Amino acid sequence: MKVMKFGGAVLRSRQGFTQMVEILRSQSGVPLLVIISAFASSTRDLERSARTAESGAQELAFALCDELIREHRNFSDELLANKPTKDALSFFLDECQTRLHQLLRGIAITRELTPRTLDIILSFGEMLALHIVRHFLEESGFDLTFVDCSTIIVTNAVHGMATPDSSLTASNVERVLRPAFGRSNIVLTQGFVAKSSTGEITTMGKESSNLTATLLAELLGADEVIIWTDVEGICTADPKLIPTAQPIPQMNYEQARNAAASGLKLIYSTMIEPSERANIPLIFRSAFAPDGNFTKISAHTDSWLPLFAIREVSPAIAEISVLNGNSWDILDAIRLFDITKWKDVPFGVSITSDECRFTLPAGIKIEEVVKFLHKQVIDMKNR
After folding, report:
1. What is the pLDDT of residues 191-204, one digit of tens each?
2. pLDDT by residue (tens digit) across 284-310?
3. CATH: 3.40.50.300, 1.10.3810.10, 3.30.1490.110, 3.30.70.260. Which one for 307-382?
4. CA 60 to CA 49: how far, in whole Å?
5. CA within 13 Å, CB half, 317
6. 206 phi and psi, to 5 degrees?
């Protein structure tokens, strides 16, 4: 069994949907749990609509909500060919719009947005994406079973950052999720969303669709988890910043946890723990280059490439971390700094045997520092 997660970085265009179809077809006969997260900026847009309603601007909140529904409607019209399917999905979108308006009206009247209500509103992002993906895959010829993840994952009642209860969730996996594979080889569900033990909708924090994937993989005893994104795994630095950044083929769980803590955007620490407990490899691949470079996170690794990450410590302070680097290489790189360029910039350096951190004002020469360090350290390692 494999667990695959597709998110907004992939499902933002017809090409991304086509790539998803090709990937799933290539896994013919393999039991797959496919997890879907919200499209593009849906979660942010839903929160913005809720915050706008809290300020009392009900009509603006409605307008923001309606634009989100319109975008999903246009996207589904572009993707789907079957008229009855389009009509059914259109009816579903109408129902979601009506329910969101009811919630936003209540917020605007009371001028109060509770964490509980915000979770309900945010959960619509995943549900909208899930239903569009479901209909698209069925039109593409897949026999699949749909399961609402809020009937599986049970959490505490800390809305916005809920923690899963592994014991209660394991019971639901055996009662609801595992039997679904008896009906079809592909089971489709959404990430991010769960329910508390009292039955209230909860969300598990930023990018927790990945946590959904690793947690359910652990409880199902899956062989691997694949996170499909728009980049070919993890590189020594953000390839959008440094085009010459090198792919990192392997990392261990501890390295991945450190990278997450240092600001690497692809990884969040909570998603590591279930994979590590069950010793399930966690793989990052590009849906647009399925046979290209990738990164495998597992218990052991032979790879030891440095990794450069940027983290905002506060609105005023940024931190550049160099992980897995040789401290002597980093010291040599620092020695080559043009001191005259930095004389007026508060600059801190902390070096240990396996990590170096540079602290400096946010927004000031951050990219320049990363580019300089990456060039020096990676070049040194390749010599």
Report:
1. 999 999 999 999 99
2. 999 999 999 999 999 988 777 899 999
3. 3.30.70.260
4. 8
5. 9
6. -55, 135
